[in-house]
Amino acid sequence: MDEKIKRLARNISGLLPEPNSAQQVYDSLQSVMKQQSEYFEHLQPQNIIKLLFYIWSYKETGDFKLGDKILNEISFAVLFETLGDIYTEDCGYCGGHGEIDCDSCGGDGSVECYQCNGSGKIDCGDCEGEGSFQDEETGTFVDCESCDGTGEDECPECYGDGSLTCNECQNGRVECPECHGETVVETTEQLYLRYFIVTWDNFIKNRCEITEGSNNITMSEYDFDRLRDNYVVLEFKDDKHADLHDFVETSEMYCSYFDDVPALYFSTINGNLQLRHHPNMYPFIK
Predict the structure, then answer these.
(1) In contact, 189 and 232? CB cutoff 8 Å
(2) What is the pLDDT of residue 277?
(3) Contact 141, 132 (CB under 8 A)
(4) How far apart are CA 43 and CA 22, in angstroms?
(5) What is the pLDDT of residue 144?
(6) Hey, where are the domains in the chain?
(7) Model-level pTM greater than 0.85?
(8) DSSP H helical ranges for the chain
(9) Whole-angstrom distance, CA of residue 85 vs CA of residue 253
(10) Could you tell me how far CA 20 lies from the centroid of its own chain?
(11) Residues of the chain falling short of pLDDT 50
């Protein structure tokens, strides 16, 4: 089977740009795997790992000796770090809008006119709402000229509308008291970055084996970056969040999972290798 994988590596290597690292080989290979997902989903995940390092070896040296050497030394690990950023979510009180209906007007933006109680009319000032008055000379009743006998005048406060603009809001909406207009609220959870890697570096493997599943620091962020040519990130997640409490320090790397032969699967959606969930993968998250 290895000879078949090596032949495939030789063929695919001609399709990929010249890489500066095994990571670049994997990144380029992902594009090929995504385009040819029907083929690669039938290729065992461990063979995809072999293909990766055989391509890297062939690109670097023209043969597969380097690939065989690396494959004899690899292990897999899940590492994570937090930068201390708090996870925010849409405000549940306002539905993420930053505003709610005004209590004073019920969201209408207007309130009943206090002068006319919403009718738009007030009693005529000349006839005091009677609509007519008695002529002093004849004793007969005549219509009030001021209100044309209706007994009502237009309300001078609302100009006959019966309502006034609400002074407590803007078009019926007020700032949400929970998120103060920000649309999101902070939670007790922290954002963290998760790296699923394959590595052949002894320092990384030793530290992961010793600290796996604990709140002991595996390595510094500086060391992880310094050793980036000695591992390949098979999957990266930057939208993870959990209540980490005081278990972890910011900008430090922690190992939550370590194995020489993990259960892998090929994602046809992302065109990459992923690790099947393990019940003890995240013991640090409470």
Answers:
(1) no
(2) 66
(3) yes
(4) 20
(5) 87
(6) 2-87+189-275
(7) no
(8) 2-13, 22-35, 37-40, 45-61, 65-71, 202-211, 221-226
(9) 15
(10) 32
(11) 279-281, 283, 285-286
